[in-house]
Amino acid sequence: MLFSTLSLSMLVMVLAGAVLLQQATAGVVAAKRDSSLNEAVGVFTFMQEQLRNPEFRGLAVLESLNRLADLAVAQQSQYRVVIQAPSSSLVSAGILAESVPAALRERVEESQGMFITPTEVVYTDPAVAPEPGWAVGASLIGPAGERYPVYYLFPMTTELQTLRALRGAVIGAGIVLVIALTLIAYLVTGQVIRPVRRASQAALRLASGRLDERVRVHGTDDLALLAKSMNRMAGQLQQRIRELETLSTLQQRFVSDVSHELRTPMTTIKMAADVIHDSRGKLDPMSARSVELMSTEIDRFDDMLADLLEISRFDAGAAVLSLQETEVAALVTAEIEANRSMAEQLGVQLVFNKLTDDNTAHVDDRRIRRILRNLITNAIEHGERRPVLITLASDDEAVAVAVRDHGVGFEAENASRVFDRFWRADPSRTRIVGGSGLGLSISMEDARLHRGWLTAWGRSGRGAQFRLTLPRTPDDELTSSPLPVIPTDDLGGGDT
Amino acid sequence: MSDGTGKAKILVVDDDAALSEMLQIVLRQEGFDTVHCPSGDSALDEFRAERPDLVLLDLMLPGRDGVSVCRDIRFESGVPIIMLTAKSDTADVVAGLEAGADDYVPKPFKAKELLARIRTRLRRTGADAGADLLTIGDLTISVSSHVVKRGNTMLSLTPLEFELLLALAKRPTHVFTREALLDEVWGYRNAADTRLVNVHVQRLRAKVEKDPEHPEIVITVRGIGYRAGESAE
Question: Chain A closest CA to B195's CA: distance in Å?
Answer without folding.
Answer: 8
